[in-house]
Amino acid sequence: MKRNGQCQGSARRAVRPFFATVRLCARQTLDGNLLGIYGEYAVRFVQFALLTMIWRALAAQGADLGGMTLRALLTYTLMASVWRQQLNVLTPATSALWEGSIIGRFTRPVSILTSLAAETVGRWWVPVFVLYSLPLLLLSPLLGISCLPAGGLCGALALCSLALSASLGFALDLCFAALAMRLKNGCWAATQVREAVYELLSGAAIPFALMPAPVARALSLLPFGSLASAPLTIYVGTADPLPTLALQAAWNATLWPAALYVFRRSRERMVSYGG
Fold first, then answer.
1. Rounded to an integer, what distance in angstroms lies between the CA atom of residue 143 and that of residue 141?
2. Dist CA 162 CA 63 (whole Å)
3. pLDDT of 195-243, one tens digit each?
4. Which of 41, 52, 74, 268 has CB 3.0 to 4.6 Å from 132, enough for a Cys bridge?
């Protein structure tokens, strides 16, 4: 009993700094310039609205939607916008390298990975959900878009897939942070490469079903396909969940050791100014 109590106490002490950092970052973001924040969300909403209008126009003209119904395609686009922060994980690692503040993260009483994960959740995931994702979900029926999954099981498995996607996103973000370090503070270049690759290869903007079949199959097997296309296709019921989840788990098992190794080796060459 005493040993169990000690284990529980150690677990609480390990988790407490994480959630404290999450709360602090969330308060800092929500206490800031909400007008500027909503400006960014307005741009994101316009992108979402334009995509839905394009899909509706294509369906009205009888275009082939790759076997997807218009309802599933609209739900796919809706959830891609709602889950964007989880599907495209962007930690402060690269920006902190540019600012010079990454040095301070190595002196905190938690690991650098824990610190980056907590800041990501507090700075982006919580504010985006409160100020954008939740309002968009509530507004979706007025836009004629269903936010419901294809079924209860599809919804539950999609959440499991989303967790694997977020985990894989953190690993890929470490790889791009390591790239920025190798480029000697080439943070802007690394960020632009990352965004271009994500938009093109993840299936977040254009579902793979709308692409030529050989291209769609190839992209679905890449790690970027496991970021967005996997949870979204499971959610709308157009993918076989078990092979998709297995592929995501395999990419996590492959890329996490590689990301940790590359990040550890690259930070030895880190050059950071300011902060």
1. 5
2. 30
3. 888 888 899 989 999 998 899 999 999 999 999 999 999 999 999 999 9
4. 41
Instruction: Give, as one character, the DSSP assignment of residue 32.
Output: S
Q: For the segment 40-69, what is each residue's pLDDT rounded down to a tens digit?
A: 888 889 999 999 999 999 999 988 888 899
Distance, CA of 213 to CA of 175 (rounded, Å)? 29
Hey, is 275 helix, strand or coil? coil
Number of neighbouring beta carbons within 10 Å of residue 95: 16
pLDDT per residue as tens digits for the range 11-44: 566 677 777 777 877 777 767 666 667 778 888 8
In this prediction the pTM is: 0.87
Contact 15, 7 (CB under 8 A): no
Q: Which helix (H) or strand (E) holds 269?
A: none
**Tokens 């539950």 -> residue:** 156
Report the Cα 146 to chain-centroid distance in Å: 22
Judge contact between 109 and 184, C-beta under 8 A: no
d(CA 227, CA 260): 19
Are residues 86 and 202 in contact, defined by beta-carbon separation less than 8 angstroms? no
Amino acid at the residue 123 = R
